[in-house]
Amino acid sequence: MTPISISLAELNIPTIMPMVVAIFGALTILVIDLFTDKLHKSFYIMMTILFLLIDLAVVLTYTGNPRGFFDLMLVDGISLLSQIIILVGSGLFIILAMSQSRFHEYRYPEYFALFLFMIAGFQFMVSSDSLILIFVGLETASMAVYVIIAMHNRSQAIEAAIKYFTIGALATAFFAFGSMVLYATTGTVELGKMAEIFVSTNFDSYPYILLGVVFITAALGFKLSLVPFHIWAPDVYEGSSAALAGFLSIVPKIAGFVVVLRFFEVFILVENEFVYYLLYALVVVTMTVPNMIALVQTDIKRMLAYSSISHAGFALSAVLVGTTQATNGLFLYWFLFLFTNIGAFAILWVHRRKRDKKFGSGNPYEKFAGLVKTSPVAASIMGLFMLSLAGVPPFSLFWGKMYLIGATISGGELVLAIIMAMNSAIAVYYYLKLIVYMFLKENIEDAEIVLMGNANTTLKAVIGISAIVTTISVLFVDPLLELINYYVTTSGF
Predict the structure, then answer these.
(1) Cα–Cα distance, 97 to 103 (Å, whole number)
(2) Residues 6+ apart with CB under 8 A from 147
(3) pLDDT 10s digits, 158-189
(4) For 395-405, what is the mean pLDDT?
(5) N or C end of the chain: smaller count of CB under 10 Å?
(6) Does residue 104 belong to any structural domain of this protein?
(7) Shortest CA distance to 347 belongs to which of 309, 388, 385?
(8) Burial class (CB in 10 A: 0-12, 13-18, 19+), 300
(9) Is the dihedral of CA 370, 375, 380, 384 positive or negative?
(10) Does residue 190 lie in a domain region?
């Protein structure tokens, strides 16, 4: 028997280095905690930030062959671009951990180890076109997220974690079953080879292909909180801390969008009617239904949860259009959305009242009434984020929305572009509602406000960076688009 020889050049080790950094960081934190339990939480926060920075440096400097590990790894431009967004969003989130010592989960090193394992899972998801490795990355990230939510250790957090776990288990079953059906049909789990087989056989065994597509679409719909698979999102966001809710609305979804881009590419290119109308329906209902529900919400965190679902539907339109311009628009939109949404949830993160028996830990609109009189800076910054989320010019998301709508029109989807514009107009109401409460309503009596003074320098820095990016985005949209286009065209999209 001839021995099998594998060279390091063929394995292309650098393709897994970003994930190795995150996993090594998690294991390092666990080993340090094994030998001593007397270190302050800030040490583990700094360790996590350090490994995220090293991870980001590895991603930014990667220039090798996109394929590695027997073609399981696919570190192309799309992968690198999405990993940058994942790491930047993760860095902004983990810095918030330095601001609130009263949340006990930050006292445990395991929290930060789980966080790095979660990041590695997301990176595996976006760095492969193998359904098996995508599944492994998806489950690695999901299992870590379930525990991270539960570690908040409040009744709502435990409930949120159980709901997320239950829905996640169902999504896992759907993904596994859909992958099995497609493997049985094509004999491969690699999306690139699967696409070649679909085209060369003219979609032979079409009913089985559609069965696999439906199940995987449902699984990804759960992860992206697309309607009607969104039922878990508002409860999970409400049960999580505001900072974690902001993180969940951004970082996991960019990983899901990349998988959706890779999976549906072949169907969009060959203009498959069933998949086209399936995606069209998902985009329209995911934009519209949460918008309508957000109109009647009385809690700001739930309102932001439903608006995040609507934004996901807005971004999903790029997958339906399927052009390079639309893909550029997806990443531009989500990058700008990252800073705006993190900033909005960060304001909720620091907003609390002493002796507030009326509102407790909730975030109703009335809690922000008259905020401009007690904390004008915080009210102004929150108003800025609301205007940006509403798509009011010249703030950041206006440019993302305009570019994505323009790409939709250029792709021949005029009706869809009109629906997108109408949904943006509807969303203005519930964003402006909060501004009205902050600037035009009277403050609740006998409630002592603790806001912004409750925030330390790092938290103020995160809010400040988000506000600056939201305000001056018009100055760097063109260079950012050029950079995004470079990465996207490198991938061949």
Answers:
(1) 9
(2) 114, 161
(3) 888 888 888 888 899 999 999 999 999 888 88
(4) 88
(5) N
(6) no
(7) 385
(8) buried
(9) negative
(10) no
